[in-house]
Amino acid sequence: MTPTPQDIQAAMAVHPRAFRDTPAVQFRKIALWIGFIGLFCWCLYDFNFAPERILHGMQRMGRILSFMFPPHIWETWAEWLEVFTALGETVAMAFLGTVLGLIVAFPLSFLGAKNINRIFWLRQTTRRGYDIIRAFEILILALIFIRAFGLGPLAGVLAIAVSEVGTFSKLFSEALENTSRRPVEGVVASGGSRFQSILFGIMPQVLPVHLSIVLYNFESNVRSSTILGIVGAGGIGFMLSDRISGYFWDQVWTIIIMIVAMVYLIDYLSGLIRARLIGHAEMAK
């Protein structure tokens, strides 16, 4: 039955909030929008987003891009070898940092999992430790380690490893908590110990998840290693920074192309590994 205008007016009188916001709600919405737009405009003003400055920057960017073409082609094998060595150093830095972080984070994740560590204060202390480590950006860690250990890949490896300890520990412990209890109950019902229930009831469920997390973070760390190289941690980022400082823009463009190709190749290989090892894994129900 189609409601008549009288029915609609009666319904509006009985349930006014179902048809329009109250003045208080309208005031809050308007205040929020004014606050949002005011904050946005203040940020533009404070960071000097002036049209003249943007136009001047775009003109300079155009000149820089014009210097990049055509890309530089090194003529000797020794020059190419220097670039490939820097690329390999970047990948090795990401690999070693990821593995070191994994080695430390794996046992720590059990201390932060609620279904494994029943000691409240120890579990909460461990979790807050994860948060403290994750609060430090990897770039800040790299700058600290460069001051402590000097320029080179060692600082980058340590920065990635420490950062991954916090990330892996948190993600691994959450994966442990999200496992099904049925396999654990089956092991216990068969007379298994607590260690055996974790080994045969929980680990088969989380290992594919752990492997997926490790592969994804390794991809991310390859990209991070390039940035760390720019601040002095070695690798292709260091070479890129050196060429930018020397205004060798054609070489910069070639290095950027090779970085993109390297990241694409790592992503592709990682996807293949995930599909082969994880794609066919059956999670416990």
TrEMBL record:
Task: Say which domain of life the source belongs to.
Answer: Bacteria
Domain ABC transmembrane type-1, residue spans: 87-270
Protein's membrane topology: Multi-pass membrane protein
Keyword field contains Transport = yes
The GO molecular function terms of this record are:
ABC-type phosphonate transporter activity
Which cell locations does it reside in?
Cell membrane
Q: Pfam families under this entry?
A: BPD_transp_1
Keyword Methyltransferase applies: no
Keywords, comma-separated and alphabetical: Membrane, Transmembrane, Transmembrane helix, Transport
Membrane-crossing residue ranges in chain numbering: 30-49, 90-111, 132-162, 198-218, 225-241, 247-266
Q: Which GO terms describe its cellular component?
A: plasma membrane
Q: Which family does it belong to?
A: Belongs to the binding-protein-dependent transport system permease family.
Its protein name is Phosphonate transport system permease protein
